[in-house]
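Q: Predict the assembly, please.
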Amino acid sequence: MSSKNALRLLVLVGPTGSGKSTLAIRLCKELPGEVISADSRYLYQELNIGTAKPNPAELASVAHHLINVTTLDAPWSLGVFQKETRRLIEDINDRGKLPLLVGGTGQYIRAILQNWEIPAQAPLDDLRKAIEAWGERIGFDALHGRLARLDAEAAAWIDYRNKRRTIRALEVIFASGKRFTELRTKSSSPYQTLVLGLEWPREQLYQRIDARINAMLAQGFVEEVSALREAGRAAQLRRMGIIGYPEILDYLDNKITLDEAVTLIRRNTRIYVRRQANWFKLTDPTIHWVNAADPAVAEHMLDLIKSEFPV
RNA sequence: GCCGAGCUAGCUCAGUUGGUAGAGCAUGCGACUGAAAAUCGCAGUGUCCACAGUUCGAUUCUGUGGCUCGGCA
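A: Predicted assembly structure:
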């Protein structure tokens, strides 16, 4: 907790399918507050049903930020998100409302809460490709060895088998002329924060997710992917690895059946849930976990918010 | 009833020329500083169907029984 006149920031975390979006709208109506989405897939106008993005009526019911703000042709990334979110937190506070940062993208939320300063090097596609080609030539463990010589600290915590992160570290070093590790810091949050978590037993969450996938299909998920495929977006969707879209594309390409696609989507979503849990742990003392199955979950959260942020 | 195949991890199966076993999936855990729904790593679990025989030793060989799946009646 920061000083009394620090900017206020309310955060709502929880795994995919936990009901964050709906709850966020409810909370914002009462506070009043405005939603800042921390979901790396809600950013894109083209993605709707398959990402479980709130529908237009829900989005119109309270102010939402950072949803549908870009297209697949102009992808955002952590740096852009962080810059925009910091600006929004200030702006919403200035207007006398409470910003509610909500989403499942752990890295984005952590970057705000821990006040990360990230290497200010935007992605350079050509350089990335060149480094990757180099790695294919000399072997990726040799590439990692190069990183170790240039920045031993970075090499120590990037697994040698993790090509993508090895390439990113080298990209920053080559483009900036500085070590990757000297360009990154973290510190305590500049905001007065309250972090709420929506907690489900794993088994129940899996059941909710299975039901949600069925609902997506009923809402026309296959048609959404089919339209994107017609528009020539298939390769892009596969490259981004957005759960559900590659599986449905495989179905549309007659590589697998719809049942097989659904099974794969369930599996991949569960794996994602487990990875998400690494960012938001039940043992994290800074997160106030609330039982999501409790019918009064919103009231409990409002009580916590009122005691943290008295009017 | 007869013939054949099978019974090993939660599931599908591999394997042990006889020295008590292993992959994938599932499950759990972890890393993460401009692709993050990405990318990458780690881990556990077994009366090897039952009983008897042979053997120093049987999940493995033999016999009997049980169950499952085919085929033939």
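DSSP finds 14 helices and six strands in chain A. Chain A has a mean pLDDT of 94.
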